[in-house]
Design goal:
Mean pLDDT: 96
Distance between the termini: 40 Å
Number of helices: 0
Helix content: under 10%
Radius of gyration: 13 Å
Structural class: mainly beta
Length: about 120
């Protein structure tokens, strides 16, 4: 039942910005951990950012994106966002959003079992 659809990817120059959106359905967004992941060609998928499935919605970021990326959610619009600023070529990859399996989970313990189809982000001069 859970569905997640990413959008907002594109091609930008280094230093540019993009805002990715993940529209969810089939579950209450604020009840579940939502993570953003990315995968570059030939590399393993890595976690980028995550928001806890808790009332406070605590956030986590990979060291490589801290200070540049911001995760947020709009529970009315059933959308989680990833604002990406000061993009670097190494940020290039397919970005996925994913949902934790169990309600109330924090990111550290979440089992991300439902995934979107991904959206391509390309950062190049």
């Amino acid at each position: 039942q859970p569905q997640l659809v990413e959008s907002g990817g594109g091609s930008v120059q280094p230093g540019g910005s993009l805002r990715l959106s993940c529209v969810v359905s089939g579950f209450r967004l604020d009840y579940y951990a939502i993570g953003w992941f990315r995968q570059a060609p030939g590399k393993e998928r890595e976690g980028v950012s995550c928001m806890d499935g808790t009332t406070d919605g605590s956030t986590e970021y990979a060291d490589s994106v801290k200070g540049r990326f911001t995760i947020s959610r709009d529970n009315v619009q059933n959308t989680v966002y990833l604002q990406m600023n000061r993009l670097k070529p190494e940020d290039t990859g397919v970005y996925y959003c994913a949902k934790g399996l169990l309600a109330g989970s924090k990111c550290a313990s979440a089992d991300f079992s439902s995934w979107g189809q991904g959206t391509q982000v390309t950062v190049s001069a």
